[in-house]
Amino acid sequence: MRHGRTLVALALSGFAASTAAQGWMPRRSVELVVGFAAGGSQDLTARTVERLLVANKLTNVPIAVVNKAGAGGSVAYGYVSQRPGDGHTLMVAGTSLLSGHILGTNPFDYTDFTPIASLFNDSIVFSVNAASPLRTGKYPRRLKSMIGVNARDVEEAVQEVKRWSGSKWAVGVYVNLPIDYPLDHPDLHPLWRAMDEEGLCYIHHSFAEGYPGYRDLWRNPFLGRSASHPWGAMRAMGAFFGAGLLDRYPNLRFAVLESGFGWIPFWAVRMEDQAKYMGFVAEGLKHTMLEYTTGGRFFASIVLHEGGRMVKMVSEFLGDHLLMFSTDYPHPESRFPESVDLALGWKEVNAGLMRKILWDNAVSAFGEP
Fold first, then answer.
1. Between 20 and 30 A from 24 (CA), which of 75, 161, 173, 253?
2. Could you tell me the CA-to-CA distances from 340 to 164, 304, 361, 364 in Å, in that order?
3. Measured over all CA atoms, what is the biggest interatomic distance in the chain, rounded to whole angstroms?
4. pLDDT tens-digit profile of 285-330?
5. pLDDT in tens, 80-102
6. Which ranges constitute the DSSP H helices of the chain?
7. Contact in structure between 26 and 59 (CB atoms under 8 Å)
8. What pTM, to 2 d.p., does this model score?
9. CA geometry: angle at 291 spanning 324 and 297, to 5°?
Protein backbone atom coordinates (compact mmCIF):
# COMPACT_ATOMS: atom_id res chain seq x y z
CA MET A 1 0.00 0.00 0.00
CA ARG A 2 1.29 3.43 -0.89
CA HIS A 3 0.07 6.38 1.15
CA GLY A 4 0.24 10.12 1.04
CA ARG A 5 -0.50 11.15 -2.52
CA THR A 6 -1.61 14.72 -1.79
CA LEU A 7 -3.69 16.59 -4.33
CA VAL A 8 -3.32 20.35 -4.16
CA ALA A 9 -5.21 23.11 -5.93
CA LEU A 10 -2.85 25.65 -7.44
CA ALA A 11 -2.95 28.92 -9.28
CA LEU A 12 -0.26 30.88 -11.06
CA SER A 13 2.28 32.57 -8.84
CA GLY A 14 1.12 35.89 -10.25
CA PHE A 15 -2.08 35.40 -8.27
CA ALA A 16 -0.73 37.53 -5.45
CA ALA A 17 -1.29 36.78 -1.79
CA SER A 18 -2.92 40.17 -1.37
CA THR A 19 -5.49 39.24 -4.00
CA ALA A 20 -6.20 35.93 -2.27
CA ALA A 21 -6.57 37.68 1.08
CA GLN A 22 -9.25 39.97 -0.35
CA GLY A 23 -11.33 36.99 -1.45
CA TRP A 24 -11.60 35.12 -4.70
CA MET A 25 -14.02 37.00 -6.95
CA PRO A 26 -13.57 35.96 -10.60
CA ARG A 27 -15.17 38.26 -13.16
CA ARG A 28 -15.43 35.74 -15.99
CA SER A 29 -15.40 31.97 -16.51
CA VAL A 30 -12.75 29.97 -14.66
CA GLU A 31 -10.69 27.09 -16.02
CA LEU A 32 -9.92 24.28 -13.57
CA VAL A 33 -7.05 22.46 -15.29
CA VAL A 34 -6.23 18.78 -14.76
CA GLY A 35 -3.02 17.20 -16.04
CA PHE A 36 -4.57 13.80 -16.67
CA ALA A 37 -7.39 12.29 -18.70
CA ALA A 38 -11.04 12.36 -17.71
CA GLY A 39 -12.09 9.70 -15.23
CA GLY A 40 -8.90 9.59 -13.16
CA SER A 41 -8.55 10.59 -9.52
CA GLN A 42 -7.40 14.15 -10.24
CA ASP A 43 -10.17 14.65 -12.79
CA LEU A 44 -12.78 13.40 -10.32
CA THR A 45 -11.32 15.69 -7.68
CA ALA A 46 -11.55 18.70 -9.98
CA ARG A 47 -15.15 17.92 -10.87
CA THR A 48 -16.04 17.52 -7.21
CA VAL A 49 -14.47 20.92 -6.46
CA GLU A 50 -16.42 22.44 -9.36
CA ARG A 51 -19.70 21.03 -8.02
CA LEU A 52 -18.98 22.24 -4.48
CA LEU A 53 -18.14 25.75 -5.65
CA VAL A 54 -21.39 25.97 -7.60
CA ALA A 55 -23.59 24.24 -5.00
CA ASN A 56 -22.35 26.49 -2.21
CA LYS A 57 -22.63 29.61 -4.39
CA LEU A 58 -18.97 30.49 -3.88
CA THR A 59 -18.85 31.96 -7.37
CA ASN A 60 -21.33 33.32 -9.88
CA VAL A 61 -19.27 32.56 -12.98
CA PRO A 62 -19.04 29.30 -14.96
CA ILE A 63 -16.28 26.85 -14.04
CA ALA A 64 -14.98 24.49 -16.70
CA VAL A 65 -12.80 21.46 -15.97
CA VAL A 66 -10.14 21.33 -18.69
CA ASN A 67 -8.11 18.15 -19.20
CA LYS A 68 -4.57 18.73 -20.48
CA ALA A 69 -3.18 15.22 -20.27
CA GLY A 70 0.38 14.22 -21.08
CA ALA A 71 3.95 13.86 -19.77
CA GLY A 72 2.92 13.12 -16.18
CA GLY A 73 1.19 16.45 -15.78
CA SER A 74 3.85 18.58 -17.48
CA VAL A 75 1.52 19.56 -20.33
CA ALA A 76 -0.93 21.03 -17.85
CA TYR A 77 1.82 22.76 -15.88
CA GLY A 78 3.10 24.36 -19.07
CA TYR A 79 -0.39 25.44 -20.09
CA VAL A 80 -1.17 27.05 -16.73
CA SER A 81 2.22 28.76 -16.60
CA GLN A 82 1.33 30.69 -19.75
CA ARG A 83 -2.01 31.92 -18.45
CA PRO A 84 -2.49 35.24 -16.63
CA GLY A 85 -2.08 34.98 -12.89
CA ASP A 86 -5.38 36.63 -12.11
CA GLY A 87 -7.26 33.78 -10.44
CA HIS A 88 -9.16 32.69 -13.52
CA THR A 89 -6.94 29.66 -14.20
CA LEU A 90 -6.70 27.10 -11.41
CA MET A 91 -5.13 23.66 -11.44
CA VAL A 92 -5.43 20.41 -9.53
CA ALA A 93 -1.98 18.87 -9.17
CA GLY A 94 -0.45 15.92 -7.38
CA THR A 95 2.99 14.81 -6.28
CA SER A 96 4.27 14.85 -9.87
CA LEU A 97 4.69 18.60 -9.51
CA LEU A 98 7.47 17.84 -7.00
CA SER A 99 8.77 14.50 -8.18
CA GLY A 100 8.79 15.40 -11.87
CA HIS A 101 11.00 18.40 -11.23
CA ILE A 102 13.32 16.45 -8.95
CA LEU A 103 13.70 13.65 -11.51
CA GLY A 104 14.27 16.10 -14.35
CA THR A 105 11.11 15.18 -16.29
CA ASN A 106 9.30 18.42 -15.55
CA PRO A 107 10.78 21.95 -15.89
CA PHE A 108 8.29 23.38 -13.37
CA ASP A 109 8.26 23.05 -9.60
CA TYR A 110 5.96 24.16 -6.82
CA THR A 111 7.57 27.62 -6.63
CA ASP A 112 6.20 28.44 -10.07
CA PHE A 113 2.65 28.33 -8.71
CA THR A 114 0.73 29.59 -5.70
CA PRO A 115 -0.77 26.84 -3.50
CA ILE A 116 -4.37 27.49 -2.49
CA ALA A 117 -5.61 24.39 -0.67
CA SER A 118 -4.72 20.80 0.12
CA LEU A 119 -7.70 18.79 -1.00
CA PHE A 120 -7.13 15.24 0.28
CA ASN A 121 -4.76 12.31 0.61
CA ASP A 122 -5.42 8.97 -1.02
CA SER A 123 -3.92 5.50 -0.93
CA ILE A 124 -3.18 2.87 -3.55
CA VAL A 125 -4.04 -0.69 -2.61
CA PHE A 126 -3.85 -4.07 -4.33
CA SER A 127 -6.93 -6.19 -3.88
CA VAL A 128 -8.76 -9.12 -5.48
CA ASN A 129 -12.31 -10.45 -5.44
CA ALA A 130 -13.01 -12.62 -2.41
CA ALA A 131 -13.66 -15.55 -4.76
CA SER A 132 -10.32 -15.14 -6.53
CA PRO A 133 -7.79 -17.99 -6.23
CA LEU A 134 -5.08 -15.36 -5.73
CA ARG A 135 -3.96 -15.37 -2.13
CA THR A 136 -0.78 -14.80 -0.17
CA GLY A 137 -0.07 -18.47 -0.51
CA LYS A 138 0.72 -20.76 2.37
CA TYR A 139 0.94 -17.99 4.98
CA PRO A 140 -1.92 -15.50 4.39
CA ARG A 141 -1.45 -13.90 7.82
CA ARG A 142 1.94 -12.60 6.71
CA LEU A 143 0.33 -10.00 4.43
CA LYS A 144 0.61 -6.87 6.56
CA SER A 145 0.24 -3.15 6.10
CA MET A 146 -0.07 0.07 8.04
CA ILE A 147 -2.89 2.42 8.97
CA GLY A 148 -2.51 5.70 7.10
CA VAL A 149 -3.68 8.83 8.93
CA ASN A 150 -3.32 12.57 8.44
CA ALA A 151 -2.12 15.03 11.06
CA ARG A 152 -4.53 17.66 9.75
CA ASP A 153 -7.31 15.99 11.76
CA VAL A 154 -5.89 14.33 14.87
CA GLU A 155 -9.28 13.34 16.25
CA GLU A 156 -10.16 11.51 13.03
CA ALA A 157 -6.66 9.96 12.97
CA VAL A 158 -7.16 8.56 16.47
CA GLN A 159 -10.51 7.11 15.42
CA GLU A 160 -8.88 5.46 12.41
CA VAL A 161 -6.21 3.88 14.61
CA LYS A 162 -8.82 2.49 16.99
CA ARG A 163 -11.08 1.38 14.16
CA TRP A 164 -8.41 -0.72 12.40
CA SER A 165 -5.95 -1.64 15.13
CA GLY A 166 -7.57 -5.03 15.70
CA SER A 167 -7.29 -6.02 12.04
CA LYS A 168 -4.95 -8.89 11.22
CA TRP A 169 -3.10 -6.78 8.65
CA ALA A 170 -2.51 -3.69 10.81
CA VAL A 171 0.97 -3.61 12.35
CA GLY A 172 1.79 0.10 12.37
CA VAL A 173 0.70 3.65 11.62
CA TYR A 174 2.00 6.05 9.00
CA VAL A 175 1.29 9.71 9.79
CA ASN A 176 1.06 12.08 6.85
CA LEU A 177 2.39 15.44 8.01
CA PRO A 178 1.60 18.70 6.20
CA ILE A 179 4.66 20.64 5.09
CA ASP A 180 6.28 22.45 8.04
CA TYR A 181 4.20 20.46 10.57
CA PRO A 182 6.72 18.91 13.02
CA LEU A 183 6.55 15.32 14.17
CA ASP A 184 6.88 16.44 17.80
CA HIS A 185 3.92 18.84 17.64
CA PRO A 186 2.04 18.72 20.96
CA ASP A 187 -1.30 18.29 19.17
CA LEU A 188 -0.19 14.80 18.12
CA HIS A 189 -0.08 13.38 21.65
CA PRO A 190 -3.57 11.81 21.43
CA LEU A 191 -2.37 9.93 18.36
CA TRP A 192 0.80 8.65 20.05
CA ARG A 193 -1.32 7.64 23.04
CA ALA A 194 -3.69 5.66 20.82
CA MET A 195 -0.80 3.87 19.12
CA ASP A 196 0.74 3.11 22.51
CA GLU A 197 -2.52 1.68 23.82
CA GLU A 198 -3.03 -0.46 20.71
CA GLY A 199 0.57 -1.67 20.62
CA LEU A 200 1.24 -0.33 17.12
CA CYS A 201 4.55 0.76 15.66
CA TYR A 202 5.04 4.27 14.30
CA ILE A 203 6.35 3.96 10.73
CA HIS A 204 8.37 6.66 9.01
CA HIS A 205 8.88 6.71 5.26
CA SER A 206 10.45 9.76 3.64
CA PHE A 207 8.51 11.17 0.70
CA ALA A 208 9.00 14.22 -1.48
CA GLU A 209 7.93 16.53 1.33
CA GLY A 210 10.86 15.20 3.38
CA TYR A 211 13.51 16.33 0.91
CA PRO A 212 16.03 18.75 2.41
CA GLY A 213 15.36 19.46 -0.47
CA TYR A 214 12.05 20.43 -1.83
CA ARG A 215 13.16 24.07 -1.30
CA ASP A 216 16.92 24.04 -1.81
CA LEU A 217 17.95 21.43 -4.38
CA TRP A 218 19.90 23.86 -6.57
CA ARG A 219 17.70 22.33 -9.32
CA ASN A 220 19.82 19.17 -9.18
CA PRO A 221 17.82 15.89 -9.09
CA PHE A 222 20.97 13.91 -8.19
CA LEU A 223 21.37 15.89 -4.96
CA GLY A 224 17.69 15.66 -4.14
CA ARG A 225 17.37 11.93 -4.64
CA SER A 226 20.67 11.13 -2.88
CA ALA A 227 19.97 13.18 0.24
CA SER A 228 16.19 13.08 0.42
CA HIS A 229 15.18 9.94 2.26
CA PRO A 230 18.07 9.84 4.77
CA TRP A 231 17.44 13.46 5.73
CA GLY A 232 13.72 12.89 6.20
CA ALA A 233 14.47 9.95 8.50
CA MET A 234 17.16 11.87 10.39
CA ARG A 235 14.73 14.66 11.09
CA ALA A 236 12.09 12.17 12.26
CA MET A 237 14.53 10.41 14.61
CA GLY A 238 15.70 13.67 16.14
CA ALA A 239 12.19 14.97 16.70
CA PHE A 240 10.86 11.67 18.03
CA PHE A 241 13.73 10.97 20.42
CA GLY A 242 14.26 14.60 21.42
CA ALA A 243 10.61 15.04 22.36
CA GLY A 244 10.83 12.12 24.80
CA LEU A 245 8.01 10.21 23.11
CA LEU A 246 9.59 6.84 23.89
CA ASP A 247 9.69 7.83 27.57
CA ARG A 248 6.12 8.99 27.67
CA TYR A 249 4.65 6.06 25.75
CA PRO A 250 6.37 2.84 26.90
CA ASN A 251 4.73 0.54 24.31
CA LEU A 252 5.46 2.77 21.34
CA ARG A 253 7.97 1.58 18.76
CA PHE A 254 9.52 3.47 15.86
CA ALA A 255 10.59 2.05 12.48
CA VAL A 256 12.25 3.80 9.55
CA LEU A 257 11.51 2.19 6.18
CA GLU A 258 13.28 2.53 2.82
CA SER A 259 15.40 5.51 3.85
CA GLY A 260 18.87 3.97 3.96
CA PHE A 261 20.60 2.77 7.12
CA GLY A 262 24.36 3.29 6.92
CA TRP A 263 23.93 6.82 8.22
CA ILE A 264 22.27 5.72 11.49
CA PRO A 265 25.43 5.21 13.63
CA PHE A 266 26.79 8.61 12.60
CA TRP A 267 23.48 10.31 13.26
CA ALA A 268 22.97 8.67 16.65
CA VAL A 269 26.41 9.79 17.81
CA ARG A 270 25.97 13.29 16.43
CA MET A 271 22.57 13.67 18.13
CA GLU A 272 24.18 12.41 21.34
CA ASP A 273 26.59 15.34 21.26
CA GLN A 274 24.21 17.98 19.97
CA ALA A 275 21.55 17.21 22.57
CA LYS A 276 24.10 18.22 25.20
CA TYR A 277 25.74 21.03 23.25
CA MET A 278 22.65 22.69 21.82
CA GLY A 279 19.80 21.50 24.02
CA PHE A 280 16.35 22.20 22.55
CA VAL A 281 15.18 18.73 23.57
CA ALA A 282 12.60 17.80 26.18
CA GLU A 283 13.63 18.24 29.79
CA GLY A 284 14.21 15.14 31.89
CA LEU A 285 14.92 12.67 29.08
CA LYS A 286 15.48 9.24 30.60
CA HIS A 287 18.01 8.13 28.00
CA THR A 288 20.61 9.49 25.63
CA MET A 289 20.07 9.68 21.87
CA LEU A 290 22.31 6.64 21.37
CA GLU A 291 20.38 4.71 24.00
CA TYR A 292 17.08 5.48 22.28
CA THR A 293 18.59 4.23 19.02
CA THR A 294 19.91 0.98 20.49
CA GLY A 295 17.30 0.35 23.19
CA GLY A 296 15.22 -2.17 21.27
CA ARG A 297 12.31 0.04 20.24
CA PHE A 298 13.87 1.62 17.16
CA PHE A 299 14.18 -0.32 13.89
CA ALA A 300 15.26 0.40 10.32
CA SER A 301 14.88 -1.49 7.08
CA ILE A 302 17.93 -2.13 4.92
CA VAL A 303 18.33 -1.01 1.32
CA LEU A 304 20.07 -3.55 -0.87
CA HIS A 305 22.53 -1.23 -2.57
CA GLU A 306 24.30 -0.49 0.73
CA GLY A 307 25.35 -4.13 0.89
CA GLY A 308 26.55 -6.67 3.41
CA ARG A 309 29.53 -4.71 4.71
CA MET A 310 27.23 -1.88 5.72
CA VAL A 311 24.85 -4.33 7.41
CA LYS A 312 27.72 -5.79 9.40
CA MET A 313 29.10 -2.39 10.39
CA VAL A 314 25.77 -1.00 11.56
CA SER A 315 24.89 -4.19 13.45
CA GLU A 316 28.26 -4.29 15.21
CA PHE A 317 27.96 -0.65 16.22
CA LEU A 318 24.28 -0.51 17.22
CA GLY A 319 23.39 -4.15 17.88
CA ASP A 320 22.00 -7.00 15.81
CA HIS A 321 18.40 -6.31 16.86
CA LEU A 322 17.82 -3.21 14.75
CA LEU A 323 17.96 -3.89 10.99
CA MET A 324 15.17 -5.54 8.96
CA PHE A 325 15.20 -6.93 5.42
CA SER A 326 13.27 -5.05 2.74
CA THR A 327 13.34 -4.78 -1.04
CA ASP A 328 11.49 -1.53 -1.87
CA TYR A 329 9.55 -3.45 -4.54
CA PRO A 330 8.39 -2.42 -7.16
CA HIS A 331 10.98 0.35 -7.44
CA PRO A 332 14.05 -0.43 -9.60
CA GLU A 333 16.24 -0.46 -6.47
CA SER A 334 14.53 -3.68 -5.40
CA ARG A 335 16.68 -5.81 -7.76
CA PHE A 336 13.58 -7.96 -8.18
CA PRO A 337 13.37 -10.96 -8.54
CA GLU A 338 16.89 -11.55 -7.15
CA SER A 339 16.33 -9.43 -4.04
CA VAL A 340 16.46 -12.19 -1.43
CA ASP A 341 19.22 -14.15 -3.19
CA LEU A 342 21.32 -10.99 -3.29
CA ALA A 343 21.08 -10.55 0.49
CA LEU A 344 21.65 -14.24 1.19
CA GLY A 345 24.86 -13.98 -0.82
CA TRP A 346 26.42 -11.40 1.51
CA LYS A 347 29.44 -13.22 2.95
CA GLU A 348 29.93 -10.56 5.61
CA VAL A 349 26.59 -11.40 7.27
CA ASN A 350 26.62 -14.59 9.35
CA ALA A 351 23.64 -16.93 9.64
CA GLY A 352 22.57 -15.65 13.06
CA LEU A 353 22.48 -12.02 11.95
CA MET A 354 20.77 -12.95 8.69
CA ARG A 355 17.95 -14.68 10.58
CA LYS A 356 17.45 -11.59 12.72
CA ILE A 357 17.33 -9.37 9.64
CA LEU A 358 14.97 -11.65 7.74
CA TRP A 359 12.59 -12.43 10.61
CA ASP A 360 13.30 -11.77 14.28
CA ASN A 361 13.74 -7.99 14.12
CA ALA A 362 10.61 -7.44 12.04
CA VAL A 363 8.64 -9.51 14.56
CA SER A 364 10.01 -7.31 17.35
CA ALA A 365 8.98 -4.20 15.46
CA PHE A 366 5.58 -5.25 14.15
CA GLY A 367 4.56 -8.29 16.19
CA GLU A 368 4.08 -11.97 15.48
CA PRO A 369 2.25 -12.68 12.23
1. 75
2. 31, 9, 16, 20
3. 71
4. 999 999 999 999 999 999 999 999 999 999 999 999 999 999 887 7
5. 988 888 889 999 988 778 777 76
6. 17-21, 41-55, 74-81, 96-102, 154-164, 189-198, 221-242, 245-248, 264-277, 289-294, 307-318, 339-344, 351-355, 361-366
7. yes
8. 0.71
9. 40
